[in-house]
Structures are given as C-alpha cells and as structure tokens.
Amino acid sequence: MPDPRVLIPTTGTCAAACAKAAALRFLGESQDVVEVTLPQGGKTRVTVATTQKGRACWAETEKPCGEAHDVTSNALIRVRFTPVPGGDILITGGTGVGKVTRPGLPLPQGAWAINPSPRRQITENLREVLPEGLGGWVEITIPRGEEIARKTCNPLLGIVGGISILGTTGFVRPISCEAFQETIRLHLHQRALLGGGVYLVFGNHGRAWARKLGFPEAATVEVGTFLGFALEVCKREGIAQVVLLGQIGKMVKVAGGIFDLHHEVADARREILFAHLVRFGLPERFWKAVWEAKTAEEA
User: Fold this and answer.
1) What's one GO MF term for it (predicted)?
2) Last-in-domain residue among 172, 188, 209
3) Are 138 and 122 in contact, with CB atoms under 8 Å apart?
4) Is residue 48 a contact partner of residue 59, using CB atoms and an 8 Å limit?
5) N or C: which end of the chain has fewer CB within 10 A?
6) Least confident span in 8-12, 94-98, 204-208
7) What is the C-alpha separation between 268 and 62, in angstroms, rounded?
8) Neighbours of 162 (CB within 10 A)
C-alpha cells in the first residue's frame, strides 16, 4: 500500500476530500482536515476550507506539489455539495472539468471527465458520513482547469473544456511511466475505433514535423521512449498503417532493433550508424570522422 506520508493525493482524492468536508459542513461539523478513504484501501488526510450558503456547502483544497510534480500541482479543486433526499448521489463537473467527446475512454461521449474510480471514491466517502435516506449532488469545479488542460493529453484524447478527475490508487506516483503508457494505449484505442492509420512521434520535434507534413493532429500519437509498447498496442488494436517520425538519434536505435528507447536501457547509436554506413559503401576516408562524431546528427 502506498505510504500516505510520501505520496501526493490525486485530483480524485482531493475531490473526494472536498465532497466529504462539504457534506460534514452541511451536517454541522466543520473540519479543516478531513480523513479520506482511498480506492484501494487505507486512508489519508487532506487539508480543506469550507463555506456554507443556505443548504449548499462548498469545500476546496489546493492539490499539493511533491516529487511527482505535474501540471495539476497547486491547482485549486472546489466541490459544492447540495443535499438531495432519497439517498442517491449525483456527481457532475463544472467550470474547468473536461467533457468526453470521443469514443474509446472509460466514460461515454458527453460525460464529465470524472473517471469511474474517483466517482466510486467520492460516493464511498459520502456514504461514510451521510445518514440513511440522504443523498447529494456533488459538483466539481477547477478554476484554472481549462488553462491547465492545454498542457495535458486531454485535447488529443478528445476531452475538452478542462482537466480530468483521475486516480486509481488515490495517489500520484512519482514515476509516471504507467500513466504515460496508459495515455498511449487509450489514444491508439481511439484511433483504432475511428479507423485509419497513426503517426507515432517521440516528442515535440516529431510532432512539429508531422504538422509540417500535413498529418492530422488527432492521429499523431506521442510515444516518448515507449516505441515498442506502442507498436504492440497497434498490433493488438489491428492498426495496419503506422508512420514513424523522429530525429535521427532515436531512428538509428530503431534501425538497430532497439524499441525501448530510454538511454539507460540501450544506446549503440554510433555502432549502428557506423555499421550501416560501411555496409552501404561509405568511403574509408570518412570512417574516422563518423566514429569520432559526438552526436548522430554530426555523423
């Protein structure tokens, strides 16, 4: 189980904390720190501020920034709780929370981008404090959400208007490889549903070249160093047309059969490039210069 003293709460955990604090405020209990149940068990504590106007109560918190810094760090997350008789709990978004516009995500088109795990977490935490027969309407807003979302993968995934409320474990993990791979998988799954080929790029340079060549932005998928993973997903999804764009350094690795492109895994760029150049007739007078080149671009 993650150590709550080290890891940072997700947007989902922050929203659950605010929902619980706002419900407690309605019930007459004002708290500055609220204990939240996590999706996979255990609890953590989140600092909140609450207000009340009539029967509606609000709670807000600033998503902490730690080693797992991301674009949502320090974002203000605000929740309004309005009591509803009957026991049902309705969870919606508002300003700064995105909406799903394409198939292939774990939410239907038109839904607020509040993932299933945070929805369950919010509901569970409210059930802990609400009396039987009392439900509530939970509205989540992120004041700077639309601005923050432009720095995420949401536009590529067809999530518009704001960020997503996420969190499978309830904590942001310092190493985000799994999250990035999941983004790649979702993007490729969407492309498979929509049909047509994909254009795999390693980063900003490849994306810029794809744009210059007129390739559709929505079909351009950034894979970072996880080319092998992305190609495996393409195979599983039945994507037959794959175009790869990138700088020569990473392309040389691919030519040598290296598909995990992280520098700690494998390099051999000089050796691969030298072998290919010699194999295809590079005059001997260039051998020394190529071998001693500091970068693949120089060679």
Assistant:
1) methyltransferase activity
2) 172
3) yes
4) yes
5) N
6) 204-208
7) 45
8) 27
